[in-house]
Amino acid sequence: IVYAYSIKVLANFSDWPKGIISWMVIGFSSFGYLIYIFSKAYESKSKIITLFRKYFAFFVLPQVFMLFYAIYLRINQYDLTMNRYFVVVFGIWLTIISLYFIILKSRSLSFIAASLLVIILIISIGPWSVYSLPLTRQYNRLIANLEKAHILQN
């Protein structure tokens, strides 16, 4: 369904949907990687599961690129908000996981949880935290727009 919708969107590129791509990709990828984790025990019992585990990361990457383009359009129009920040971070995490499973031969399922933990820690503290970065960007954008309109001076 996600790929059919992506083809529909790409065919009518000028009429980009309003926010639905992000949630579809996040749902598709989250559910897919959850199945990926839990299907490890059944890999030797089914060829379908073996094929799924071998190629799933390849199917995530094109959707992640759709996610990045969709979120780029919204950030370019309205700047970064907390929700958009989470979407960007989740997209980066999906890219890292997918590339990990595509490139490396020895695949550890603990990498999924460990990488998510590291990303959660990174976005929880410091100037790039989920509470600081979007607020700072929105504030700076407001100040710039007010100064440009000559409403705020000095």
What is the strand and helix layout of this fold?
Elements: H1 2-11, H2 20-38, H3 47-78, H4 82-103, H5 110-124, H6 133-148
Task: Describe, in plain words, how this protein is organized in 3D.
The protein is an all-alpha fold. Helices cover 74% and strands 0% of the residues. It contains six helices and no strands. The protein has helices spanning 2-11, 20-38, 47-78, 82-103, 110-124, 133-148. α2 packs antiparallel against α3, α3 (47-78) runs antiparallel to α4 (82-103) and α4 (82-103) runs antiparallel to α5. The longest helix has 32 residues, at 47-78. The chain is flat, with a radius of gyration of 19 Å. The model has no long low-confidence stretch (mean pLDDT 88).
Radius of gyration: 19 Å
Uncertain residue segments? none
Mean pLDDT: 88
How far is it from the N-terminal to the C-terminal residue, by CA? 53 Å
- Our count of helices gives 6
- The dominant shape is flat
Described by its quaternary structure, the protein is single chain
**Percent of residues in beta strands:** under 5%
Largest sheet: none
Helix share, percent? over 70%
Structural class: mainly alpha
The sequence of SSEs as H and E is HHHHHH
DSSP summary, beta strand count? 0
